[in-house]
Amino acid sequence: MGTKSREVIFGGRLRFWTARVESTREEARAAIKKAHRALAEEWSVRMEGFGGPAQPSPTIAQCISGGLGWLEVECMRCKTRGSLPLQHIRRPQDTPVWKLEASLRCRSCATRRYRPPVRLVKLTQAREVNPYPWDRPGNER
Asked: Tens digits of per-residue pLDDT, 22-41?
């Protein structure tokens, strides 16, 4: 005749707790995204409003997770602005955004021997200005 299986005895409880754990995970992911967005927006406001300090800054992955996937930069020489997509920058995702400043250079006013540096302006959700006049990290020639 046999006895009831474990699925029959504990199945309802198992399904309940599995569903509850999944909903808790989704809430945690949403909270993490919200925290990443707040961190990236705070850094962006600090950079745009006061011009720095750039440290500490969020990582590339935190910016992308928070929904701010574009970095706006400005040439120190010609004052041209450009937007760079963070997801296409060839650096590890755990690189802080401020470390990108040293490797970014302006293409529009560059000479054969000198490429002027850029300064970080802000993080944005969508591209606000043209992306073409900037060398991206990893494109050194």
From this structure: 888 888 888 889 999 998 88
**Tens digit of each residue's pLDDT (9 = 90 or more) over 79-98:** 888 888 988 889 998 999 88
Q: Report the 10 Å Cβ neighbour count for 108.
A: 13
**Cβ-proximal residues to 107 (8 Å cutoff; 6+ apart), any chain:** 115, 132, 133, 134, 135
Question: Using an 8 Å Cβ cutoff, are 123 and 98 in contact?
Answer: no
Tokens of 76: 């120190």
Indicate the SS3 state at residue 1: coil
Q: How far apart are CA 65 and CA 85, in angstroms?
A: 13
CB-based contacts of 136, cutoff 8 Å, min separation 6: 84, 88, 89, 90, 104
| CA distance readout (Å), 98 to 1, 52, 129, 140 | 71, 10, 20, 19
Backbone angles phi, psi at 37, to 5 degrees: -65, -45
Torsion of CA 78, 110, 50, 46, to 10 degrees: 130
